[in-house]
Amino acid sequence: MQQRSERTRARLVGAAGELFDRHGYAQASLGDISRIAGVSKGALYFHFESKQELATAVQEAGCRLLEETVLALCREGRPALQTLIDTTHALAVWASTDPIVRAAFRLGRERAGGDRPVLNYHLVCSATAGRLLGRAAEEGALRPDVTEDAARTLVAGMVAGIEAAAWSGAPHPEIAAQLGQSWELVLRAIAEEHARRDLRTAPPAAHRPEPVAG
């Protein structure tokens, strides 16, 4: 029974992510979400009292994916800057293909300014970058004349660029190539030469786009 309930909840969150990504928060209806999830509205209300609560669940799912990915990369023992680079490449994949992450970005914008605090996926990404940059500083990888806040601002700009490019319909191979080039520039600005030497700015193999034919 519990497993069935968890599957139903996951279907609802997935359906909500698709509709929030496609139509935005205001236009997505609970009726359409329950229909796409293949469950009754009664089942939807059993799990979520309101559309606001369902939207928060979508944003939390995007945050969990980010957190779990960073933890997995950290376990591989890479330098903090490499972990950060690979995390941004994962974000580039998700921004192009994953409705949950795309919706998390969009919901953070569309729900801001209301009477309830909401998750802002950009700020979550920025905080994650800040933690990894703090580790990079401890590893001696950042230049002494560069503050962690300044470096985090540069990374936040790249993340915003990733989302904007994906939202405009740019193909993922193009986004990945631009992201790699951006990292080349950013690393020259923030990282010590010895730390840059062994860093890879292209996507890791798991996230490497297929070559474009022609």
Describe this structure in words.
The protein is mainly alpha-helical. It has one domain (56-207): Orthogonal Bundle (Tetracycline Repressor, domain 2), CATH 1.10.357.10. It is 71% helix and 0% strand. The protein contains 10 helices and no strands. It starts with a helix and ends in an 18-residue tail after the last helix. Residues 210-214 have low confidence and may be disordered.
Rounded to the nearest angstrom, the radius of gyration is: 19 Å
Proportion of beta-strand residues: under 5%
CATH topology heading: Tetracycline Repressor, domain 2
Describe the main β-sheet briefly.
none
* Outline: elongated
Would you identify the CATH architecture?
Orthogonal Bundle
| Mean pLDDT across every amino acid position | 92
Unreliable stretches, pLDDT < 50, 5 or more residues? 210-214
CATH class, named: Mainly Alpha
Number of helices: 10
CATH homology superfamily: Tetracycline Repressor, domain 2
SSE order, one letter for each helix or strand: HHHHHHHHHH
DNA-binding region: 29-48
Keywords: DNA-binding, Transcription, Transcription regulation
Pfam families: TetR_C_45, TetR_N
Domain HTH tetR-type: 6-66
Which descriptors would you attach to this protein?
0% strand, transcription cis-regulatory region binding, elongated, mainly alpha, 71% helix, Tetracycline Repressor, domain 2, HTH_TetR, TetR family transcriptional regulator, 214 residues
